[in-house]
Amino acid sequence: MNSSKLHIFFCLTILVLFATPTICQPEFTDDICNDEDGNYTINSQFGKNLHKLLTNITSNTQIDYGFYNLSVGQNLDVVNAVALRRGDIPTPDCTKCIRNATIKITTVCPNQKRAVGWYDTCMLRYSPRNIFKGQLQMLAYANTTHRKAANPEAYNHTVSTLMTRLATEAALGDSRRKFATGEANVSSTVRVYGLLQCIPDVEDFDCLNCLRDAINYTLADCCYGQLGVKAAGVTCGIRFDTHRFYKSAVVLPPLLSPARPPPFLSLPPSTTSKTGNTSKRIRVTVATGIPTVAFLLIIVILTAFYLKRRQVSSAKTLYEEEDEEDGLGESLRLDFNVVKTATQNFSNSNKLGQAALALSTRV
């Protein structure tokens, strides 16, 4: 009898231990299970890759900025996953949220190859398709607090101004985080708080467009005059309310700029025993010497061109002067027979004077 009770107790203990991780996971704010790319089984290669991928995300300690984009497998069995924490959530809370999401998502979507789940502080998504580099997607859901503003027009105007300014700030984030929060006074008694975030690997203009679409949709279409609204998709999400629901943004270390390649050319590694400053000095000398030589070469070419033009101009002037002299000479030349007739065959009566080699006569 005691043995039977002990066996039952042991079985119940095992059941509780294995069931607790699933039962204790909070419900998603929203989730989507998509079987357009087919289904999988736990023992299939896709199922094994998915399990490995979700384990890699929760055990990753190198990423401290809350954005994970990992891939496991290849061809038809590849699994790509993206996980994102809210920008004001510290690492320990982020790790807990994403761990809950990895367990919950396989519960609500037990065999679909595409799935996404949202908590208030994190999001998890996986797919066999390439979901990296943040393709722009429509909003997936929008929830309200079912509290109406006393003056919807004034409230919406203040929210629109605040959220539009924050959208630009969020879009200008870096590859680790695109996130912004802020607040504004609606009246002397009402204050509104806003939060916006995009997937960090989305382009700046795509992030901005996604946030603007979300703002316009929540203010004009679904939730006009609502005091509190939360809307999100896989690309971006927004939230605003009349109470402060966020913390200060987690401070990230400065993002190191990638090393720039040397200008103009890259020399092969030095074969001498000297390295370090010597190689750098050679590279800088060549890089700065090339534009100097090019500048001097241009000066030489322009100078030669100028001198050549000047020489051609001088020769042309000389030729014109000779032509003019030749023309004058031609005009003074007379035919011999004409002169002979005019001087009466060089008669002595017409002679005016004589030199050693010339004779002057009257015509």
TrEMBL record:
Give the range the annotation lists for the signal sequence: 1-24
- Keyword Signal set for record: yes
Keywords from UniProt, A to Z, are:
Membrane, Repeat, Signal, Transmembrane, Transmembrane helix
The record's InterPro entries line, in alphabetical order, gives: GNK2 (IPR002902), GNK2_sf (IPR038408)
- Bilayer-crossing residues are 284-307
Which superkingdom is the protein from? Eukaryota
Q: What's the short name of a Pfam family annotated to this entry?
A: Stress-antifung
Q: Which intervals hold domain Gnk2-homologous?
A: 28-131, 137-245
- Entry keyword annotation includes Ligase: no
Protein's UniProt name = Gnk2-homologous domain-containing protein
| Organism per entry | Saponaria officinalis (Common soapwort)
